[in-house]
Amino acid sequence: MEARTLELVFPEHTNPLGAAFGGFVLGLMDKVGSYAAARRAKKPVVTVAVGGVEFKVPIRTGDLLEVVARVVRVGRTSLTVEVEVYKERFGKENGRVLATKGELTYVAVNEKGEPVPVDAP
Ligand SMILES: CC(C)(COP(=O)(O)OP(=O)(O)OC[C@H]1O[C@@H](n2cnc3c(N)ncnc32)[C@H](O)[C@@H]1OP(=O)(O)O)[C@@H](O)C(=O)NCCC(=O)NCCS
């Protein structure tokens, strides 16, 4: 199961040198990761853990980000989602570059916020 979105980086997402705040990128990863997990579980999910995120390449004002999230593991109540962030700059030839990736884990929950089996009806 997959989810993806595009987001343009604006000055309010960056520091005075024009580099994106890590928290902005992490927020996008968490949001799109949760869409993939909720799609697979067919129920609400909450984030329980964020792992292995590295910011290898700077993301700057004007970059177009594509966030791609794929469910890579389904447990009893939890799901692990691999999230990749590609950056692209209009008019540049080096095209689309993988800027960061990480693995986020979500738990399927009921209306009280308690864990429920992913595949329960
Ligand atoms: C997520 C939450 C509902 C889990 O409740 P819990 O009583 O701790 O649940 P359990 O111990 O039964 O664990 C549920 C599942 O999460 C997994 N899990 C728990 N902690 C984990 C961690 N640190 N990393 C990875 N998986 C984890 C368990 O392995 C289990 O998976 P499984 O059922 O597939 O085997 C609860 O911890 C919670 O509400 N956390 C806050 C969520 C939140 O607000 N997120 C937003 C962050 S601001």
From TrEMBL:
One of its GO terms (biological process) is acyl-CoA metabolic process. Residues 1-112 form the HotDog ACOT-type domain. Pfam families: 4HBT. InterPro entries: Cytosol_ACT, HOTDOG_ACOT, HotDog_dom_sf, Thioestr_dom. One of its GO terms (molecular function) is long-chain fatty acyl-CoA hydrolase activity. Signal peptide: none annotated. Keywords: Hydrolase. One of its GO terms (cellular component) is cytosol. Belongs to the acyl coenzyme A hydrolase family. This is Acyl-CoA hydrolase.
